[in-house]
């Protein structure tokens, strides 16, 4: 990103310092990745400043790109490593996929809304992310042909984790999801020696996971 104006780099570094590091995120890989990914490129309809503000941003089709802190929180909870293969459900703008792609070996991201998938695919490719594949379909079934994954991130709120996604989580794998109807809590599942462990984290508000396989109970959501 050498051609990027300096003031945009400053906005981004300020975002990382004030919204992420100051709030206790200390995963160096995540800090570096979020210092590099040009978030404003994923939110082209917005003034550049809005992309780096402390909040979620609407990306059209009733969907949002999550607040930077929430992306940092979820990504550091994934504890991503350079050898990892990651699956994201809910591509949206493609921003979270880019953050993962900065760190991981390979990322598959699935989006159900065709225009969002297509835009994210073009954007990620033009920004040079060659290790991300965007697929357009219902993410409920995950990506069986790509399994097992070290990381699975669901970036839409689900009442429960689709069982196929648990099956695609490898040993030592981490699955992060905003769980719940109405109020949601970021939840981490880790698989160790075949057993799944569950931990509860931050309270959040995500757009709903929408699937013909699952009643999310979110029909009256306000996004
Ligand atoms: N990670 C995104 C934000 C996600 S918003 C970003 O960085 O911008 C949640 C996204 O999940 C929306 O785009 C929505 O269309 C998608 N989604 C919801 N249910 C889905 C499903 N069953 N399969 C795939 N995508 C889904």
Q: What is the structure about, briefly put?
A:
This protein has helices at residues 6-21, 28-36, 48-51, 68-78, 95-103, 114-126, 163-167; strands at residues 57-60, 63-65, 85-89, 106-111, 132-136, 149-154, 169-179, 184-192, 195-204. It has 223 residues and is an alpha/beta fold.
Secondary structure category: alpha/beta
Which topology of the domain at 54-204 does CATH recognise?
Rossmann fold
Unique ligands: S-adenosyl-L-homocysteine
CATH class of the domain at 54-204: Alpha Beta
What is the helix tally? Answer: 7
Secondary structure tally: strands: 9
Helix content: 25-40%
**Whole-number mean pLDDT:** 94
Identify low-pLDDT runs: 217-223
Give the radius of gyration: 16 Å
Classified in CATH, the superfamily of the domain at 54-204 is Vaccinia Virus protein VP39
**Architecture of the domain at 54-204, according to CATH?**
3-Layer(aba) Sandwich
Strand neighbour order, sheet with most strands: 5-4-3-6-7-8-9
Distance between the termini: 33 Å
> Which of globular, elongated, flat, extended, rod-shaped describes the shape?
globular
Main β sheet profile = 7 strands, mixed
Tell me the strand percentage band: 25-35%
């Amino acid at each position: 990103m050498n051609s990027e104006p300096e003031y945009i780099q400053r906005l981004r570094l300020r975002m990382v310092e004030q919204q992420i590091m100051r709030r206790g995120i200390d995963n160096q890989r995540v800090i570096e990745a979020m210092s590099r990914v040009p978030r404003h490129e994923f939110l082209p309809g917005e003034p550049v400043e809005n992309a780096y503000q402390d909040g979620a941003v609407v990306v059209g089709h009733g969907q949002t790109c999550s607040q930077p802190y929430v992306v940092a929180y979820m990504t550091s909870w994934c504890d991503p490593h350079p050898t990892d293969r990651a699956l994201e459900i809910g591509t949206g703008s493609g921003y979270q996929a880019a953050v993962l792609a900065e760190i991981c070996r390979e990322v598959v991201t699935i989006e159900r809304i065709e225009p969002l998938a297509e835009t994210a695919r073009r954007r990620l490719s033009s920004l040079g992310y060659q290790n991300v594949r965007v697929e357009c379909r219902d993410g409920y079934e995950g990506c069986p042909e790509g399994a097992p994954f070290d990381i699975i991130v669901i970036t839409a709120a689900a009442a429960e984790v689709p069982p196929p996604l648990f099956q695609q989580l490898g040993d030592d794998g981490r699955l992060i999801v905003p769980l719940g109807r109405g109020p949601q809590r970021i939840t981490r599942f880790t698989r160790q020696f075949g057993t799944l462990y569950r931990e509860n984290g931050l309270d959040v508000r995500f757009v709903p996971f929408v699937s013909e396989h699952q009643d999310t109970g979110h029909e009256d959501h306000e996004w």
